[in-house]
Amino acid sequence: MASAIRKQDFTRLTPYLWEIPTSFQAGMRVPVRLYADERLLKAALGDKSLQQAINASMLPGLVSHVTVMPDVHQGYGFPIGGVAATRLPSGVVSPGAIGYDINCGVRLLSSEVGLEEAQPFLSDLATALYRNCPSGVGVGGNLRLSAKDLDRVCREGSQWALKNGFANEDDIARTEESGRIPGADPSTVSPRAKQRGRPQLGTLGAGNHFVEVDVVDEIFDEQAAAAMGLTVGQLAVQIHCGSRGFGHQICSDYVREFQPAVKRYKIQLPDRELVCAPLDSPEGKRYLAAMACAANYAFANRQIMAQHVRRSFEETLGGRVADWDLTQVYDIAHNMGKIEEHRVEGELVKVCVHRKGATRAFGPGYEGLPEEYRSLGQPVLVPGSMGTASWVLLGTEGSMEQSFGSTCHGAGRVMSRKRAKKTVRGDRLKAELESRGIHIRARSMPGLAEEAPLAYKDVDAVVEVVARAGIAKKVARLRPVAVIKG
Amino acid sequence: MYEELEHTADWALRVQGRDLPALFKNAALGMMELSGVQTGDEPGEVRQIELQAVDTESLLVDWLQELLVALELEQLAFREIELQITGGKKLVGTFQTVPIISIEKPVKAVTYNELLIQESPDGLEATVVFDV
């Protein structure tokens, strides 16, 4: 399981940036750059994640370097915590380098509810959230989408949610791409994907997805926190989920379709999960159009989940606290392929940025940001492991210069699921977290054990690295008071 | 016939079988066990399945993906699996469905990550990585 790569194989570019040169292994087209301190470097060397980054560096059409974030861990082909940009038009798009859960991401809602006034109702709030946010395997939501409705969700994303009463204008403005990726074409999506997608809109799913009620623990940037509505001692809510079976099926379909395509385009790869096709090829264009459908579905999904959360706040806190409204801070993807322009060696280049377990982190001045954030930079949401801190950050000029406008996405696993299940008992973990004042509602105890905090890296250390490296800026730290697991 | 391997983020399963049908069957049973599927006793219908793929590894992915979708969409598991595989690229078979009482955790997708069906002292062996 351990990596064959050693510390001495890296060149240390800065105290927090390490590079594996192209001379390290035949076939590498660009270097691999890892953000880490000594401890996180050691953790990254503990599994195959860096070999996976080296494999990713063999994709045709890459620009500059493959970036690896400090929360990196082994995935299934492309490392989780990886960023790779391929040049348009002839560079490739790789569905596996974006992932099965297309537009898995995080939404943060802020409130005016103080922890003290909410304390007597937190257990009821956790129960209401668990009841109102459908979770679990194949569990459908309350919506029954027609085939035409699903096509509209594919094209319109959060805008569909707005038209159907699940959103307000501020929610949309404070969502990446206003909750709608252009170029979605439902005709590129298989009937099976649609069959899986129709019943699942507005559901959490399982795995590491969650709804979490947090309290703002510490502020590091008063101006930015004020713009985001974050105040120490007040509640906020994170929603972590994606495109459900719809996105999983779309990725599966295209990974399958691309298997013969790589042969057609004479592309040699070290791992079949990295299959790809040129961005300007019929296959590449079809995948991007289908991926946009899944991305829009995921934006709508988190939007509807936000309404479930608002209803839960109303049911349990309405009339009991002064103001129980929830305001969207931001919604951001961390599994996505995006067509963007970046400056590389002084030249403005149009690229497809593959972010898998990495968050877009655009710096100040980006026109797509709502006015209140434009001079600050784009909010970045970094959930920690269950029971530990989460972070709100900002994108920076440094992230634009160094990492294709990207930064970390979480704590990052360090222990296998198998070992976590052997080491931790879900019921004991639940009791321990409850004794620390964190209300837990979870469907599966083994599932809870797999997500135990000891299976993850220290999120504070991860954030410290990206902040010191200049690819994000700290705004606020959150700590959990209620966790709802799928 | 199958064992869970260490994998940081996902689930990995080493599967063995004396021949391809046995390997495919064991992979299916392993996927169900990893997901923590609990089934009822009442047998369902017998289903026929026919798949064609570009190579044997793709056929294995397609087979597991078919079952994964039945698990998710219809809440059905499967037993009495009988398969015939010809030329390594075509699968024909039957399995009996059985209703699921509960699942601990679903598989999102079956991946091609390092997937290679190889000969082993006892027949055939493959490692399958599942996205969870």
Can you walk me through this structure?
The complex is a heterodimer of chains A (486) and B (132). Chain A is an alpha+beta fold and 486 residues long. In chain A, 34% of the residues lie in helices and 24% in strands. In chain A, a hairpin with a 7-residue loop joins strand 15 and strand 16. Chain A is globular and about 65 Å long. The model of chain A has no long low-confidence stretch (mean pLDDT 95). Chain B has a single domain (2-131), classed as Archease domain (Archease, Possible Chaperone, Chain: A, domain 1, 3-Layer(bab) Sandwich). In chain B, helix 1 (20-34) runs parallel beside helix 2 (56-74). The mean pLDDT of chain B is 94. Chains A and B meet through helix 8, helix 10, helix 14 and helix 16 of A and helix 2 and strand 7 of B.
Number of contiguous helices of chain A? 17
CATH architecture of chain A: Alpha-Beta Complex
CATH class wording of chain B: Alpha Beta
Helix content of chain B: 25-40%
CATH topology of chain A: tRNA-splicing ligase RtcB
Q: How many separate helices of chain B? A: 2
The major β-sheet of chain B equals: 5 strands, antiparallel
Structural class, judged by helices and strands of chain B?
alpha+beta
How many E strands of chain A? 19
Radius of gyration of chain A (CA) equals 21 Å
Question: What is the multimeric organization of the chains shown?
Answer: heterodimer
Q: How helical, in percent, are the residues of chain A?
A: 25-40%
